[in-house]
Amino acid sequence: MEPLDFDRLAAGLHALPPSCGPVRLVAVDGHAGSGKSTFADRLAAALGGAPVLHLDDLATHEELFAWTARLRTQVLDRLIRGHAAQIHPYDWTLRRFGPPRPLAPAPVVVIEGVGAGRRALRPHLARLLWMDREAEQSWARGRRRDGPAQAAFWDGWTVAETRHFAADPSRPYADILVRECPEGYEWLPGPAGTTRPNRIVTDSDRLLPPY
């Protein structure tokens, strides 16, 4: 493991070829409670304020993982054409979708959430980052965060997430594994990290993060 330098990571992502129209789409995936949102916000800041798409805006109580069609019509199809995405964020309290909210086709767009590295999305990704925290540890962290009022939701969620990753795993396709530590974050190449094109190599030919 090596310390993760956000500025260096951001520079490398900007240097990649576009993957979704003019956009470099970067996914941050991992188990619920693994720290994806916090990491994605840090990465977006290092990218100069890159837009962040939270998959919680596309999922619903009834469709925790059946949001691929919404992602395609509201986001991918529009970004591919160089247009701003038009997201109708789901209100988890009112249980309905809200008014449209634009998401600009910036040079880099971060998409974060459980399933961000799913099979249907991977062809459009410039890079896939996986928050490398075990499922049970992540879920316990999430339950503590949300409190006892959400216990029933978490009981159903863990079953649904387990089924999702059994059928459509993301970690085997990750370019970078990210681990949270007391000093920040550490990284190591993911299963796909040493085979991706456009990797960066130093003068001594030591593999750097594949971004």
Architecture overview:
It is globular and about 45 Å long. It contains five helices and eleven strands; from the N terminus they run E-H-E-H-E-H-E-E-E-E-E-E-H-H-E-E. By secondary structure, it is α/β, with parallel strands linked by helices. A hairpin with a 4-residue loop joins strand 5 and strand 6.
Question: Summarize this, please?
Answer:
Helices cover 30% and strands 21% of the residues.
List keywords for this structure.
211 residues; alpha/beta; two-stranded antiparallel ribbon; globular; disordered C terminus
Estimated share of beta-strand residues = 15-25%
Strand order of the largest sheet: 1-11-10-9-2-8-3
pLDDT averaged over residues: 91
| Quantity of strands, as a count | 11
Intertermini distance: 16 Å
Helicity level: 25-40%
Based on Cα principal axes, name the global outline. globular
Biggest beta sheet summary: 7 strands, mixed
Whole-number radius of gyration?
Answer: 17 Å
- Helix count equals 5
Structural class: alpha/beta
Give start-end ranges of low-pLDDT stretches. 197-211
Secondary-structure element series:
EHEHEHEEEEEEHHEE
